[in-house]
Specification:
The protein has about 210 residues and is an all-alpha fold. Helices cover about 75% and strands about 0% of the residues. It has twelve helices and no strands. It has helices spanning about 10-20, 25-40, 45-55, 60-75, 80-90, 95-105, 110-125, 130-140, 145-160, 160-175, 180-190, 195-205.
Length: about 210
């Protein structure tokens, strides 16, 4: 509860901000990250968290600025590197994006997120083969990574590999049965395949 939140503990604000961000309450999350930063302006986790919230709101300039501040404090922070890398990719800075993302993979090859973020950036630049390779590494390390399964399925569908796409979406749904985006995409694919009953089941779950 808000009444129990410590007024002098940056970690408390970080924890609540992360919860608010996961619920899509971006403005509330930014407010909490900012309150925490007033207490500790050099907290790299708070800076990166606020950058992630700015990205979700579409404010890419502010997002990159926060991730850069985090990396000024902690140059080898993989989470800041991956987040800034994807933001840079979204802003069209391919060289800067892969400088960050390649470094994150080099620093943390056992962390699925490093491969997943780089796969997302490759997808932005339409490097489908590279994206598939990175995303497959991500799900091998973390089979519950629903976002990577979604991106893999999307790429395979674009490449005409329909059975692979269906398998990817299904693996993602196994990991997160209530993921509406996965349900939506599998529902559309099932309709294209002629499985109208399965398509309707997925679409019903997507809007439930």
């Amino acid at each position: 509860p808000a009444a129990d939140l410590s007024l002098d503990d940056p970690f408390a604000y970080n924890t609540r901000a992360a919860a608010r961000l996961s619920l899509g309450r971006h403005d509330d999350a930014i407010a909490d990250f900012t309150r925490g930063l007033l207490l500790d302006p050099r907290d790299s986790a708070l800076l990166t968290g606020r950058g992630a919230a700015h990205k979700e709101k579409g404010n890419l300039e502010a997002a990159e600025a926060d991730h850069t501040r985090a990396l000024d404090v902690e140059p080898d922070y993989p989470f800041a590197l991956t987040n800034r890398g994807v933001v840079r990719a979204m802003r069209g800075n391919r060289t800067g994006a892969f400088e960050d993302l390649d470094r994150a993979v080099s620093l943390s090859p056992g962390w699925f997120g490093a491969w997943s973020f780089r796969g997302n950036a490759r997808l932005i630049f339409r490097d489908r083969d590279g994206a598939v390779e990175d995303l497959q590494r991500a799900v091998a390390l973390e089979p519950r990574d629903a976002r990577s399964w979604l991106n893999l399925g999307t790429i395979h569908r674009e490449m005409g590999r329909i059975s692979d796409a269906l398998a990817d979406f299904t693996r993602g749904i196994t990991a997160e049965p209530d993921n509406t985006r996965l349900r939506h995409h599998r529902g559309l694919l099932r309709r294209e395949m002629g499985d109208l009953k399965g398509s309707l089941e997925d679409c019903d779950r997507a809007v439930a």
